[in-house]
Amino acid sequence: MKEKVVQTPRTSRQSSEYTTLGLRCPVCNTEFTLEMPVVQPPEGRETDLRPCFEGADPLPSFIHCCPSCRYTAYRDGFQGRSEEMEEDFELISKRPGDRLPVHFRLPDESELDDLRRWIRSGELLQGVAEGREPYGAERYMLGGRCYEFLKDEDPVGAADYFLRGAWCARGSGNRELERACQRETIQRLSSGLDRSLIPAADRPRALYLIGELSRRGGDFPKAVDVFSQLDSSADAEDEESQLFAHLARRQLALAIVKSDVNAAVAEDELALELERPRGEEGEEEDEGEE
After folding, report:
1. How far is the C-alpha of 188 from the C-alpha of 102, rounded, in Å?
2. What's the rounded Cα separation, in Å, for the pair 107 and 114?
3. How far apart are CA 259 and CA 267, in angstroms?
4. Contact indicator for 238, 203 with CB cutoff of 8 Å
5. Closest Cα to residue 19, out of 34, 30, 32, 31?
6. Helical (H) or strand (E) element with 60
7. Which of these, 229, 246, 245, 247, lies nearest to 193 by C-alpha position?
8. Backbone φ, ψ for residue 139 (5° rounding)
9. pLDDT in tens, the chain (290 residues)
10. How far apart (Å, rounded) are the C-alpha atoms in residues 180 and 139?
């Protein structure tokens, strides 16, 4: 189906463009349409890496749920590769520490029969928006379950869905759902670490998120332990490791006083304006003078 851009009046300074997107569910063949806001670059980040936008938050609109069977995926899980979707993801994932959303391609015929049986069993919807249309965080939870069914050896990929679900739940003010998504994220990231499924380069990010989500969820002893572990094990030669060690030191202070406050971090701080390791204060200046 072709996409078309529709001009819709809005008082915000953001663009008034929306994209009308037509999709067909590969599981039950239901066709449906939805409105997608034109994505704007984020204005900042919160300390669990949630991007913040001046206008409408596009995150709830990125993931789509079939109105009939509730199969849930990003756009390419319905219609295959989408350059527009990839451009949107890259636009909001430019800062150090960010990751592109983890998504799966259109299921092939060998996967669809098992997927249909699993959805008919009721496991997909168990405890999530039963009997009504899911939105935002609930869609990310359903997408995570679909991802786990199709990619059952990748708990880290599934964690990404629940992390984004926590972001959306916070945006809608649903504290209970936010904490449920945080717990699911911690469980999967911890499983990935325990099973050595997370590459060494991604371990600082995973540890930081476990610590920050634990702090936000009120598990302060765990947050203190993880933040301290991350700070002491940071690789002085790796910029991203230093970024998360820097953020861990900052959040450790909140965990120690048992604060679960929603904290923000400026974009320039994510641009690696970090504390240099001791003894290296003059190295960058010397290099710049050559």
Report:
1. 14
2. 11
3. 23
4. no
5. 34
6. helix 59-62
7. 229
8. -65, -40
9. 333 333 333 333 344 477 788 999 999 999 999 888 888 888 889 999 999 888 888 899 999 999 999 999 999 999 877 777 778 888 777 777 888 889 888 888 889 999 999 999 999 999 998 788 899 999 999 999 999 999 988 999 999 999 999 999 999 999 999 999 999 999 999 999 999 999 999 999 999 999 999 999 999 999 999 999 998 888 888 889 999 999 999 999 999 999 999 999 865 665 544 444 433 433 433 444 43
10. 14
Count Cβ atoms within 10 A of the Cβ of residue 34 and give its class: 0-12 exposed, 13-18 middle, 19 or more buried.
middle
Per DSSP bridges, beta strands 17-24 and 4-7 are antiparallel
Q: Which two tokens stand for residue 48?
A: 């669990």
- Nearest one of 221, 271, 225 to 246, comparing CA atoms: 271
DSSP 181: H
* Sole residue written with tokens 């239901």: 30
In which residue are the tokens 């861990």 written?
Answer: 248
Pair 279, 236: CB distance under 8 Å: no
For residues 193 and 209, is the Cβ–Cβ distance under 8 A? no
Letter for the amino acid at 226?
Answer: V
For residue 175, the SS3 value is helix
Angle between helices 175-194 and 155-171 (to 10 degrees): 160
Record the tokens describing residue 54, joined without a space: 């001046």
Q: The tokens of 211 are what? A: 């610590």
The identity of residue 212, as a single letter, is E
Cα distance between residue 169 and residue 18, in whole Å? 23
